[in-house]
């Protein structure tokens, strides 16, 4: 705070003036980092003037949103997002109509929300904007599109930026594709354990990171809209054929997969949507039996999926939205199993990512929460298993609990450890991602000292961890059973 409080005018707007007292008051009363102090005595907070409160009114005014979603530069970085929003707007409009009929949406305060699409910026160096129609990453664009639609249609005042010179905010929620675990987020801990990278060390509350899939309850799950058209009149007229669509829009994704695809070809006609750049020489040749449509727009891609029986995973990209859209359109997803699981220690793609999560397949969410008969997770190098799986598709142990980090405070005690059967030779506190836990070697009952390190993903062979759990709705882990009513 001493070094950075002048970096953004919002700090001053909350009363920060450079004094240590103002730092403590801001960190306790605005951001909740420090315990609230008794400096205010019994002074009542000022009463709000009801006449100055603005309320959020649901709206389906697409053109108003398009005026907000204007790219500040010549690269047209928002073009794909605008295209997806226009294509799906009738569904958003009908959704808010149904929601308004089922719930009273009046009386909600209008919030001012800044959505900063950082990976679209020139400074990021990722060239998301330049590659959005050349086979570049689209999963993030899908999620951003749906987030923007949700906030706007619910009536909030949103500002959309992508360049750093537009950015002026100190209250952050980060859309984070793969998640950020507490061990990597806490800068002091990450540095002392030599795991600090440019992705981590943000020192935010772990639930300020919003993930695409429910990777870990340590972070918040945001999700995205799965586009499907099965109930459309035109869709009902489309006949499903004995064909498969390969999930691999770039040629390099096909490398080393020809034996696998040759087996698929024995049973179905093989289609693809591979982007090819004639100016760039590729080491991979797409087989002649593959009918390549090139990159398709949304409508044509979903038509192809509705015509197909199979959606063939190649192992990459990891955890994209496409398999869920294929499943929603009636295709069965063959999900490559990873032996051993992919993680930051054995896979180049994950090196430096702020997570030790192990991917047991290309799409772990589909593997765990959807499963057969819509998803078959198999070893695609076992060609006999591939044959048997495709035959099965063409012819024809979860305990239902998930860790809930918001309840760690309630179980972080020796008393609860003993209630769960622990026999404690010694009681102590420690700062690490594994606690509260029982050390099975020496029977130490260990309580977590640092609340920011409460974690659902930490594991150590000699520790039997105590984690708070809840049930969930299959296919929608954000909801518990009964909560959706």
From TrEMBL:
InterPro entries with a match to the protein in the record: GT18_cat (IPR026116), MGAT5_Glycosyltransferase (IPR052105)
Keyword flag Cell division: no
Keyword Zinc applies: no
Subcellular localization: Golgi apparatus membrane
Known pathway: Protein modification; protein glycosylation
EC number annotated for this UniProt entry: 2.4.1.155
Top EC class, one word: transferase
Domain of life: Eukaryota
Membrane-topology descriptor: Single-pass type II membrane protein
Catalytic activity: N(4)-{beta-D-GlcNAc-(1->2)-[beta-D-GlcNAc-(1->4)]-alpha-D-Man-(1->3)-[beta-D-GlcNAc-(1->2)-alpha-D-Man-(1->6)]-beta-D-Man-(1->4)-beta-D-GlcNAc-(1->4)-beta-D-GlcNAc}-L-asparaginyl-[protein] + UDP-N-acetyl-alpha-D-glucosamine = N(4)-{beta-D-GlcNAc-(1->2)-[beta-D-GlcNAc-(1->4)]-alpha-D-Man-(1->3)-[beta-D-GlcNAc-(1->2)-[beta-D-GlcNAc-(1->6)]-alpha-D-Man-(1->6)]-beta-D-Man-(1->4)-beta-D-GlcNAc-(1->4)-beta-D-GlcNAc}-L-asparaginyl-[protein] + UDP + H(+)
Keywords of the record: Glycoprotein, Glycosyltransferase, Golgi apparatus, Membrane, Signal-anchor, Transferase, Transmembrane, Transmembrane helix
Principal location class: Golgi
Glycosyltransferase family 18 catalytic domain residues: 169-396, 399-469
Family per similarity comment: Belongs to the glycosyltransferase 18 family.
Protein name, entry field: alpha-1,6-mannosyl-glycoprotein 6-beta-N-acetylglucosaminyltransferase
Species, as recorded: Tegillarca granosa
Taxon lineage: Eukaryota, Metazoa, Spiralia, Lophotrochozoa, Mollusca
């Amino acid at each position: 705070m001493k070094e950075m409080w002048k970096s953004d005018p919002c700090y001053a707007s909350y009363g920060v003036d450079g004094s240590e007292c103002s730092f403590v008051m801001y960190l306790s009363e605005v951001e909740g980092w420090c315990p609230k102090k008794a400096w205010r005595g019994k002074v009542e907070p000022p009463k709000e003037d009801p006449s100055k409160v603005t309320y959020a009114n649901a709206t389906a005014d697409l053109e108003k949103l398009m005026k907000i979603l204007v790219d500040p530069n010549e690269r047209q970085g928002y073009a794909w997002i605008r295209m997806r929003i226009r294509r799906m707007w009738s569904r958003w409009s009908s959704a808010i109509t149904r929601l308004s009929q089922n719930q009273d949406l009046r009386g909600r305060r209008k919030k001012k929300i800044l959505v900063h699409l950082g990976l679209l910026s020139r400074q990021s160096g990722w060239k998301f904007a330049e590659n959005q129609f050349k086979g570049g990453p689209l999963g993030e664009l899908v999620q951003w599109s749906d987030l923007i639609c949700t906030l706007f249609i619910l009536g909030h005042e949103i500002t959309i930026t992508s360049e750093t010179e537009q950015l002026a905010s100190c209250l952050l929620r980060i859309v984070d594709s793969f998640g950020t675990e507490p061990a990597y987020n806490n800068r002091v801990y990450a540095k002392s354990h030599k795991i600090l990278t440019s992705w981590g060390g943000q020192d935010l509350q772990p639930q300020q990171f919003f993930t695409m899939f429910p990777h870990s309850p340590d972070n918040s799950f945001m999700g995205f809209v799965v586009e499907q058209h099965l109930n459309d009149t035109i869709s009902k007229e489309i006949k499903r054929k004995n064909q498969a669509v390969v999930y691999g829009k770039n040629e390099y994704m096909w490398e080393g997969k020809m034996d696998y695809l040759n087996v698929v070809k024995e049973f179905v006609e093989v289609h693809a949507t591979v982007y090819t750049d004639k100016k760039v020489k590729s080491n991979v040749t797409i087989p002649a039996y593959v009918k390549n449509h090139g990159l398709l727009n949304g409508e044509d891609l979903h038509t192809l999926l509705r015509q197909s029986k199979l959606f063939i995973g190649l192992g990459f990209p990891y955890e994209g939205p496409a398999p869920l859209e294929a499943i929603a359109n009636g295709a069965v997803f063959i999900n490559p199993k990873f032996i051993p699981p992919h993680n930051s220690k054995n896979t180049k793609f994950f090196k430096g990512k702020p997570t030790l999560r192990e991917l047991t397949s290309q799409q772990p969410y589909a593997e765990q929460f959807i499963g057969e008969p819509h998803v078959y997770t198999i070893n695609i190098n076992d060609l006999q298993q591939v044959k048997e799986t495709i035959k099965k598709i063409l012819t024809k142990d979860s305990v239902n609990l998930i860790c809930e980090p918001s309840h760690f405070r309630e179980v972080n005690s020796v008393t609860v450890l003993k209630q769960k059967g622990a026999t404690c030779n010694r009681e102590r506190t420690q700062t690490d991602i594994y606690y509260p836990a029982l050390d099975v070697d020496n029977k130490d009952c260990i309580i977590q000292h640092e609340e920011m390190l409460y974690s659902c993903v930490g594991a150590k062979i000699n520790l039997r961890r105590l984690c708070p759990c809840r049930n969930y709705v299959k296919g929608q882990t954000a909801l518990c059973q009964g909560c959706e009513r």
